[in-house]
Amino acid sequence: MSAIICKDLCKTFRQGEEVITGLDKVSLSIDAGEFVCLSGPSGSGKTTLLNAMGGLDRPDSGEITVGEQRLDTLGKGELADIRLNSIGFVFQAYNLIPVLSARENVEFIMQVQGVPAAQRRLLADQVLAEVGLAGMEGRLPSELSGGQQQRVAVARAIASKPRLVLADEPTANLDTHSAAQLMDLFVALNQERGVTFVISTHDTRVMGYARRLVRLQDGRLISDEPQQPHTMAQG
């Protein structure tokens, strides 16, 4: 079963008088349960593609299907529902709410979903333990390291049990040790929960974790190859 199907996606941006190509007829199909990295230099289109897959940005033309939903035909409210209930996001800058504890940050999306308070607290604590943060539920983001903040962001992304997690340069602000721990966590969640992961990165060490590597350049898909994954520790 396909998790994502992209057909002939095109996207341009205006920068003053210049027109920048974000995506140039990109077609890509990702099956449920895959672990895929989008790679390429800055400006290659990987973040633009990830945002289109998540319904955060609408392509100028082409089709995007997530599960059985055509995203490119949906209105803003319908897209918000898809993002809320079916897709988890992990961002480079963590995007945690600074005045909320780790538990409250994880609970936030479940609260919007209407999950009762007692149930979401229990689920938040369970998923924080799953990502290695048991005992830190009451800490504010400012009281956590960068790696711990990113783990809270991952816990928030998976708390609602999404079918798909999109991660945009998730290790960019982490040291090597924290980055390796995060990627090991992604692999475990992929293998144990069957969550589909699509990760954008220009870090060759992160690319090594993927079972499939998609390379972009100047908005075009230039290669799409399976590979044997390895960890940072393995080099």
Q: What order do the strands of the largest sheet run in, or round the barrel if closed? A: 6-7-8-3-9-10
**Gap from first CA to last CA:** 32 Å
Largest sheet: 6 strands, mixed
Helix content: 25-40%
CATH homologous superfamily assignment of the domain at 2-94 and 161-226: P-loop containing nucleotide triphosphate hydrolases
Q: Hey, roughly how much beta strand do the residues contain?
A: 25-35%
Q: Pairing-aware structural class of the strands and helices?
A: alpha/beta
Number-wise, the strands total: 10
The average pLDDT score comes to 89
Q: What's the CATH class of the domain at 2-94 and 161-226, please?
A: Alpha Beta
CATH topology of the domain at 2-94 and 161-226: Rossmann fold
- Number of H- or I-type helical stretches: 7
Low-confidence stretches: none
CATH architecture of the domain at 2-94 and 161-226: 3-Layer(aba) Sandwich
In sequence order, what are the helices and strands, one letter per element? EEEHEEHEHHHEHEHEE
Name the descriptors.
7 helices; 235 residues; 29% strand; 10 strands; 6-stranded mixed β-sheet; Rossmann fold; 4-stranded antiparallel β-sheet; 34% helix; alpha/beta
Write a structural description:
InterPro entries: AAA+_ATPase (IPR003593), ABC_transporter-like_ATP-bd (IPR003439), ABC_transporter-like_CS (IPR017871), ABC_transpr_LolD-like (IPR015854), MacB-like_ATP-bd (IPR017911), P-loop_NTPase (IPR027417). Keywords: ATP-binding, Nucleotide-binding, Transport. Residues 4-235 form the ABC transporter domain. This is Macrolide ABC transporter ATP-binding protein. The mean pLDDT is 89. The strands form 2 sheets. This protein has a 6-stranded mixed sheet with strand order 6-7-8-3-9-10, with helices on both faces. Strands 2-1-4-5 form a 4-stranded antiparallel sheet, with helices on one face. The chain is globular. Helix 3 (102-113) packs parallel to helix 5 and helix 5 (146-158) packs parallel to helix 6. A hairpin with a 2-residue loop joins strand 9 and strand 10 (220-226). Helices cover 34% and strands 29% of the residues. The chain has 7 helices and 10 strands. It has a domain at 2-94 and 161-226: Rossmann fold, CATH 3.40.50.300.
